[in-house]
TrEMBL record, chain A:
Belongs to the energy-coupling factor EcfT family. It is a multi-pass membrane protein. The keyword Membrane applies. Keywords: Cell membrane, Membrane, Transmembrane, Transmembrane helix, Transport. This is Energy-coupling factor transporter transmembrane protein EcfT. Forms a stable energy-coupling factor (ECF) transporter complex composed of 2 membrane-embedded substrate-binding proteins (S component), 2 ATP-binding proteins (A component) and 2 transmembrane proteins (T component). The chain crosses the membrane at residues 44-66, 72-94, 106-128, 148-167, 245-262. It is found in: Cell membrane. It comes from Lacticaseibacillus yichunensis. Transmembrane (T) component of an energy-coupling factor (ECF) ABC-transporter complex. Unlike classic ABC transporters this ECF transporter provides the energy necessary to transport a number of different substrates.
From TrEMBL, chain B:
It comes from the Bacteria. Pfam families: ABC_tran. Its main location: membrane. The lineage of its organism: Bacteria, Bacillati, Bacillota, Bacilli, Lactobacillales. Belongs to the ABC transporter superfamily. InterPro entries: AAA+_ATPase, ABC_transporter-like_ATP-bd, ABC_transporter-like_CS, ABC_transpr_CbiO/EcfA_su, ECF_ABC_transporter_ATP-bd, EcfA_1, P-loop_NTPase. SMART domains: AAA. This is Energy-coupling factor ABC transporter ATP-binding protein. It comes from Lacticaseibacillus yichunensis.
Length: 264, 278
């Protein structure tokens, strides 16, 4: 579990940390979008420099980002190799039957590699510098216009908030049940696939039943504290845009302009 | 003095139960009173609490809270006046952080944000949890979570606080802390406290103790009156305070002890005079 970097939050108070989560969320999506604009070495160089500048701004160690790439490494290599061997055009360096390493193949492979790495870096940057809770707030705030279409945004936000809040609680509960079942002789994670699947049942069913009882207690407590549905509620936590959010947006526009100018 | 809670011939039967959980319970609680309800498991204590703020609707009988009869229309007004702290601190924590959780009840009432911030800070201050405002529940201890639950209730400024076995999952230190907190709150404002408990020390600090047995009120009186019937209580599946147990142990060893209930201080004083006369 600890190996997974994507989705982890590293506390800090850097420039990036202090950005409004909505800005960060939108900017990340936008950035991933404009990565696809880059199509030659100059535009890729600009994107790489921009990415490293943002990583530097976040004051998070580069190691975290590299570890974020690791689980995707095989997929990246596979795609890059496909590109290298199956793209034709330009000078031919090596050929064997229908397999060929060509000039275009190599450059395409390099570009795909950069594209993957930059996308992973930027999404890692988003999750490393934003608390899951703020992300949930950002999603709620950004979805708010959908209320016109009768999408129950406040209810969805509450569901998201409660789900996030109960993740650690249910994790603890899972560990507890696993240990309790181990103490009674259940052997998790050994044997063939079928045996392993069967061993999960004494973990899954108590967890399921537990969730029901938690849900009931929680619903009672919410009722007792006057929860009457999403309408007419005020909000304790509000998001506010600051000057730095404007700066970030301006940065994105400048970057787009630069890319459009430089791309082949 | 006005009555905070009036319960008039209340009966409640759970949908598929054969026996009523509560049978013809009548009870008046004065404003500012601390009433402890004790009884063995399944005696109907929690059912009573849920009938008071309308989480359950009485099968028959009438409940009046702060002059308002409990009906479909004013159920939310009553819930604003009655705050319940439940047993399991983990399962009643709604918010993603301590501050959010305390604000939850206020959000539900559509309170403006400025006022909400003041109230949340004030409530956290009162339970001594100000430094934890942005903490997540997973990183709090059971006692701290329970204090946050109490802060969430006092932020709503209720007239009545019901503690539904609120201290049962805490260690002795945490339990004492919560009780002292409630006591301090009660001194600051005229708060009616209804505590449902298995903890005998909690019951001993109440103004009045009510014994619930199989859905009916068995006995009602001051802690001194109730605890003086030591052996009877044990037969009902309840415990007696330590001083009372010591008194009975001394009586069985042939030492002359008064029949009325002695708290710890009273017992010490009595033993001291007993010794000096010998």
């Amino acid at each position: 579990m600890n190996k997974l970097i994507l989705g982890r939050y590293i506390p800090g108070d850097s420039w990036i940390h202090q950005l409004d989560p909505r800005t960060k969320l939108l900017a990340s999506f936008y950035y991933i979008g404009i990565i696809f604009l880059a199509n030659d070495w100059k535009s890729y160089l600009v994107m790489t420099l921009a990415t490293f500048f943002m990583i530097w701004l976040s004051k998070v160690k580069l190691g975290f980002f590299l570890r974020g790439v690791r689980p995707m490494l095989w997929l990246i290599l596979f795609t890059v190799l496909l590109q290298v061997f199956f793209t034709t055009g330009g000078k031919v360096y090596w050929q064997w039957g229908w397999l060929a390493i060509t000039q275009f193949g190599l450059s395409n492979g390099a570009f795909i590699f950069m594209r993957f790495v930059l996308i992973i870096f930027i999404s890692t940057l988003l999750t490393l510098t934003t608390q899951p809770l703020s992300l949930a707030d950002a999603v709620e705030s950004l979805l708010r216009p959908l209320r016109v279409l009768h999408v129950p945004v406040t209810e969805l936000a509450l569901v998201l908030q409660i789900a996030l809040r109960f993740v650690p609680t249910l994790m603890d509960q899972t560990t507890k049940i696993m240990n309790a079942q181990r103490a009674r002789g259940v052997d998790f994670g050994s044997g063939n696939l079928f045996q392993q699947m069967k061993a999960v049942v004494p973990l899954l069913i108590p967890l399921f039943v537990d969730s029901f009882s938690i849900a009931e207690d929680l619903a009672t407590a919410m009722d007792a504290r006057g929860y009457q549905g999403g309408d007419g509620r005020s909000k304790f936590r509000v998001l506010k845009y600051h000057r730095r959010d404007g700066v970030a947006a301006a940065g994105m526009i400048v970057l787009t302009g630069l890319l459009l100018l430089l791309r082949a | 003095m006005t009555e905070a809670i009036q319960i008039d011939h209340l009966s409640y039967t759970y949908p598929d139960a054969t026996h009523p959980a509560l049978a013809d319970v009548s009870l008046d609680i004065a404003q500012g009173e601390w009433v402890a309800i004790i009884g063995h498991n399944g005696s109907g204590k929690s059912t009573l609490a849920k009938n008071i703020n309308g989480l359950l609707a009485p099968t028959s009988g009438q409940v009046t809270v702060a002059g308002l009869p409990l009906t479909e229309e004013n159920i939310w007004d009553i819930r604003a006046k009655v705050g319940i702290v439940f047993q399991n601190p983990d399962n009643q924590f709604v918010g993603a952080t301590v501050g959010d959780d305390v604000a939850f009840g206020l959000e539900n009432r559509g309170m403006p944000r400025d006022e909400m911030i003041v109230r949340v800070d004030d409530a956290l201050e009162q339970v001594n949890m100000s430094a934890f405002s942005s903490r997540e529940p997973a990183r709090l201890s059971g006692g701290q979570k329970q204090r946050v639950a109490i802060a969430g209730i006092i932020a709503q400024r209720p007239d009545i606080i019901i503690l539904d076995e609120a201290t049962s999952m805490l260690d002795p230190a945490g339990r004492l802390e919560v009780l002292q907190l409630i006591q301090a709150l009660r001194e600051r404002q005229s708060l009616t406290v209804l505590s449902i408990t298995h903890d005998i020390d909690e019951a001993a600090s109440a103004d009045r103790v009510i014994i619930l047995n199989d859905g009916a009120i068995k006995e009602s009186g001051t802690p001194a009156e109730i605890f003086a019937r030591g052996p009877e209580l044990i037969e009902l599946g309840l415990d007696v305070p330590f001083a009372e147990r010591l008194k009975h142990a001394l009586i069985s060893r042939g030492i002359n002890m008064p029949a009325h209930y002695l708290d710890e201080e009273g017992l010490v004083n009595y033993l001291w005079t007993l010794h000096s006369t010998m």
